[in-house]
Design a protein that fits this description.
Blueprint (H helix, E strand, L loop, with lengths): L7 E2 L7 E6 L7 E3 L5 H6 L1 E5 L7 E6 L12 E12 L1
Parallel strand pairs: 2-6
Antiparallel strand pairs: 1-3, 2-3, 4-5, 5-6
């Protein structure tokens, strides 16, 4: 993990809410989404990475509309799946 991973944590912390990242350069990491509104979660996320197609670019992760999202609460509440890279 490096300085670009400020929002990523190696494991769940009490009273925090996470999305697990599936696929791509951040596969298996947790993204802290504590306090995110449902619309923000639906928009997905672009994360800086040196491990993608373009070093210094962003890895794109999105929720899948066909996967139900449990109600908010502590722990992992959804998955963001890798959808590609952008410079």
């Amino acid at each position: 993990m490096n300085a670009d991973d400020e929002q990523l944590n190696p494991g769940p912390l009490p009273h925090q809410t996470y999305a697990v990242l599936v696929g791509g350069p951040r596969d298996g990491l947790l993204l802290d989404i504590t306090g995110w509104r449902p619309e923000e979660i639906d928009d997905g996320v672009a994360l800086m990475t040196e491990l993608g197609r373009w070093p210094g670019g962003q890895a794109l992760y999105d929720p899948r509309p066909d996967e139900p999202r449990p109600p908010g609460g502590p722990g992992v509440v959804c998955r963001f799946r890798y959808s590609g890279d952008t410079p």
